[in-house]
Design brief:
- By secondary structure, the protein is α/β, with parallel strands linked by helices.
- Among the domains are: 85 residues, Translation Initiation Factor IF3, CATH 3.30.110; 76 residues, Translation Initiation Factor IF3 (2-Layer Sandwich); 98 residues, Dihydrodipicolinate Reductase, domain 2 (2-Layer Sandwich), CATH 3.30.360.20.
- Helices cover 32% and strands 29% of the residues.
- It has nine helices and 17 strands.
- Strands 5-6-8-7-12 form a five-stranded mixed β-sheet, with helices on one face.
- Helix 3 links the parallel strand 5 and strand 6.
- Helix 1 runs parallel beside helix 2.
- Belongs to the RNA 3'-terminal cyclase family. Type 1 subfamily.
């Protein structure tokens, strides 16, 4: 696809939330668009406009690419970015609320892997907060799928942070794709057999220890009742201390592994007036549904892989459960921005998402790229 000088995105269509920003801005930085404008930001939300998490994320990647940003204010409904070159180095970003750190990783990871040199990020905010992936799901589920694309990143949880104060800390260490190299296509279409269940149950010092224990025991009980005793289960209990957590919270992340390398994740947060047993059940139930639908990628990881499929070289494919609106939105915008071709089809109880990626090469100027294409013909 030709390099575009200007693109305007309508942030109110389909899911109409923050995800449109986290997809469009990295694409325009990586592909070096002249200018991107996003209008009607989060136009499908009751309180539209940029909130702290979105604002921090956009400012972070703008700093990394030494771009020029306009409209980067709280509640702004229009954003304009003129990207420049992605630079290596160390960067910090603090949402200053419980705004999700994992959604910061969502906007940052596609950008930092296309840097000329390593990037280290220190991100602060909520690590285990509602309506976003838990940090444990990023570390134990998303990162292994990213490795399959050839992405070399390490995500390290330094301190958990919860609603309403956030103040958790996550580090991301990234080695860039080698100059002239591309992401590899992935193929996760055969789940094979369940090989094990893993998980993490965490709690902060002010939560009684029996809560953590009961969540773990209930999760194990539900798994054994459903899948029998033969599949190994290993759920770690983490009683976080004052150094490793800020604020108060508890929760669980569960993972189902298959002998073909698939990992399905699911999580739940503890809540006042919700029993420990119910917290375990809230993580267990969607996991079972995803396993029963024969998915190789779970319902919340689906949309997060779309941008990488589009940038990779060759045909990527994965099998998943019902397509979420987030995934449909990601496909819509990534297609518009990259020119990659997506196909979705129902196959029995699951869906296949297939993409012919554009094979974007890291660190090549337009001239290098044209020369390479001529030589390949
Ligand atoms: N329970 C969950 N577990 C894991 N991932 C989740 C969960 N809920 C949402 N997500 C993921 O978090 C992201 C949320 O995107 P979304 O656009 O809704 O968020 P947002 O930026 O907070 O904006 P908004 O407030 O506009 O919804 C998506 O990638 C979605 O798949």
């Amino acid at each position: 696809m030709e390099k575009k000088n200007f693109i305007e995105i309508d942030g109110s269509i389909l899911e109409g939330g923050g995800q449109i920003i986290r997809i469009s801005i990295p694409c325009s930085i990586i592909l070096q668009y002249g200018k991107i404008v996003i209008k009607n930001i989060r136009g499908n939300r009751p309180k539209p406009g940029l909130k702290r998490q979105h604002l921090s994320g956009v400012q972070l990647v703008n700093t990394i690419c030494e771009g020029t940003l306009k409209g980067d204010k709280l509640d702004s409904s229009r954003l304009e970015l003129i990207p420049s070159k992605i630079q290596g180095g160390s960067f910090k970003c603090d949402v200053k609320t419980a705004g999700s750190v994992t959604l910061l990783t969502q906007i940052a990871i596609p950008v930092i892997i296309f840097s000329p040199s390593p990037i280290d990020l220190e991100l602060s905010g909520g690590t285990n907060v509602p309506l976003s992936p838990q940090i444990d799901e990023i570390i134990y589920c998303l990162v292994p799928y990213l490795s399959a694309f050839g992405i070399d990143i390490e995500v390290v949880l330094k301190r958990r942070g919860f609603y309403p104060k956030g103040n958790g800390i996550v580090e991301v260490h990234s080695q860039p794709i080698p100059k002239g190299g591309c992401l590899k296509a992935i193929n996760f279409t055969e789940f094979g057999e369940l090989s094990k269940f893993t998980g993490v149950v965490y709690s902060t010092p002010t939560i009684p220890q029996h809560v953590n224990k009961r969540i773990k025991e209930q999760a194990e009980k539900l798994l054994v009742e459903k899948f029998g005793k033969k599949i190994p289960i290993k759920i770690d209990q983490r009683y976080e201390g004052k150094q490793s957590s800020f604020g108060q919270g508890t929760g669980i992340a569960l993972f189902a592994h298959s002998n073909t390398g698939c990992i399905l994740g699911s999580s739940a947060l503890g809540e006042r007036k919700v029993s420990s047993e119910e917290v375990a059940r809230r993580a267990f139930q969607p996991l079972v549904e995803d396993i029963e639908s024969n998915a190789c990628v779970d319902r919340h990881t689906q949309d997060q892989l779309i941008i990488f499929m589009a940038l990779a070289e060759g045909i990527s494919k994965f099998r998943t459960c019902e397509l979420s609106l987030h995934t449909q939105t990601a496909i819509h915008f990534v297609t518009e921005l990259t020119g990659a071709k997506f196909l979705t089809s129902k196959d029995g109880s699951s869906w296949i998402i297939e993409c012919e990626g554009i094979g974007h090469k890291n660190g090549l100027s337009m001239k290098d790229r044209e020369e390479l294409e001529t030589n390949q013909k």
